[in-house]
Amino acid sequence: MSDLTRLSIKDAKRPLLLSCVPDASIRRGCDIMGVRALRQVVDLALLRESRDGGKAGGNKGDTNEAAHNQPPCSCGRNITLPPSTSGKAGNGSRSFTIARLLWRPFEEQRPAEHRLLTGVELGKACPQRAKRDRRRVAKPWTAKMINQPGPNDPVDESLVTVFGGTGFLGRRIVSRLLETAVVVRAASRHPRKNKVDDASGERQSLQVEADILDPSSMASAVAGSRAVVNAVSLYVERGEQTFERVHVEAAADLAAASRDAGVERFIQISGIGANATSRSPYIRARGRGEEAVKAAFPGAVIVRPAVMTGPDDAFITTIARLVRLLPIYPLFGEGSTRVQPVHVEDVAEAVSRLALGRNPAEASIFECAGPRIYSYRELVREIAAQLNLRVRTVPVPFAVWSILATASEFLPAAPVTRNQVDLMRFDNVATRDLPGLKELEIQPRGIEDVIRMIEHAA
User: Fold this and answer.
1) What is the spatial distance between Cα 358 and Cα 413, in angstroms, rounded to a whole number?
2) Could you say which of 121, 348, 403, 436 would form a disulfide bridge with 172 (CB–CB 3.0 to 4.6 Å)?
3) Where are the domains of the chain?
4) Is this prediction's pTM over 0.70?
C-alpha cells in the first residue's frame, strides 16, 4: 500500500499533505493552496493512482474486478469512477498524477485534470461527496487555484485587472467596471475580505490572490488583461512594507509585468502633491513611483486624486466624529492649509473610464479634485454647520502633531500618521493646467452628500 492510500484525508494537516508530494518544485506550487483544496487534490490523486494502477496491473478482462477493488471515497462509501482521462496505462504513479493535477494548470493548455480541482469527478462518483464539495468550492478563496490565470493566456479584450481591489478606492473601481460589459479580475492579498458587488447582484469580479510584493504572483494576475489598474496604497510602514518598496519598487515591477504580458493600458493611482524631491518619505515615494511606472510602462496614465471622501473614509467621517465629541477642535497648524476634497465614487468612475480607453484629452496625468476649495479651518466649520453643531477651533503646531503621530503609529489602528501630518503641511488642490474630472465628463460631487450619509448613519 502506497503512502497515499495510507493517508486519512479527513484528519490530514498541511505538513502531512505536502509530504505526499515527492517533487520539491511541485511542492512549492502546493504551498499557495489552502489546506482544504490541498486535501482534495491528494484525494483525487489517490483515486487516480488506484484506478490507473488497476488498469496497468491487469488485462482487459479484469476491468470489473479492478473497479470492485477501488477504495471508498473519503466519506466512507464505495464509488464507481468515471472513465479515466489520465492517459496511457502505467502513468498513474503518485508523482505523475500530482504533477498533472498541480503543475499543468499554470500552462497555456488546460487539460481535463484542471477541472478536477472543482470536485466534478468526485461528485459524479459519490453524490454525498459532491454535495459537501459544492459547499466547499463555492467560496471565492477556495477557487483561487481554479481561476488562477496562466502566464501565456491570450489577451481578453474585455478583461481589466485591478490590484488593491478590496481597498477603499479599489473596490469601487471594481464595482464601476462591473457596471459595464467588461470582466474584472480583483487581485489582492486577502480576497476573502472583498465586499465588492455590483448593483444588479448578477455579475461578480474574479477573485485572485496576488501580492504586489511578489513578482511571480503579478505575472499570473495580469495575464490576459487588456488593462491593469494599480490601486495599492500604504500609509503606515511596517516591516518589509515600506513606502519605497510598495509605491516605487512594487509599482515598477507591476508595470513591467503588465508590459511584458502585452497589456495595452496601465493606470497608476498616485496623489495630488506627489513630489520625488520632497523631504516627506511618503510624498517622495509617491513621486518616485510615478517616475518608475512611466519608465517601466511607456504610455502609463497617472491618476492623482485629492483627499478622497466617502461614507467610510478616514477624513470627513473622522472630522464629523470629533466635532461631535470634542468641546474644542484641534487644527493642523493654523488651519490655513487648502484642501479640495473629492468623492471617492467620482475618482472610481474616472479610473474606470481611463481603463476602458476613454481618454479624450490623450493625457498621461489626471488630477481629480472636488468642486470647492476649503481651508482646513473652513472645512471643519462647514462640516459642523452641515451637522447643525457649533464648533470652537484651536491651532496646534505641526511639531506637536508629528510627536503624536509617531507615538500613535505603534497602535494597531493609528488614529493619525506622520504621512498624514506631512500631507496637511501643503495645499492639496488640483493644478489648473492638468486635466481632471471635467475632461472626463464627470460632474464632481461636493462633501454634502457624504455628510448626509454620515448624519443618517448616526
Assistant:
1) 38
2) 348
3) 3-143, 159-457
4) no
Q: What's the pLDDT score for residue 362?
A: 87
Angle at 256 (CA atoms; ends 252, 260), nearest 5 degrees: 175
Structure confidence at residue 45 (pLDDT): 56
On the 0-12 / 13-18 / 19+ scale of CB atoms within 10 A, 153 is: middle
CATH topology classification for 159-457: Rossmann fold (3.40.50)
- Taking only the tens place, the pLDDT of each residue in 240-262 is 899 999 999 999 999 999 999 99
pLDDT in tens, 290-301: 999 999 999 999
Give me 202's grid cell.
448578477
pLDDT of residue 41: 56
Half-sphere exposure of 50 (CA within 13 A, CB side): 24
pLDDT > 60? residue 136: no
Q: Whole-number mean pLDDT of the chain?
A: 75
Instruction: Identify whether the C-beta of residue 192 lies closer than 8 Å to the C-beta of residue 200.
Output: no
- Amino acid identity of residue 145, one-letter, is M
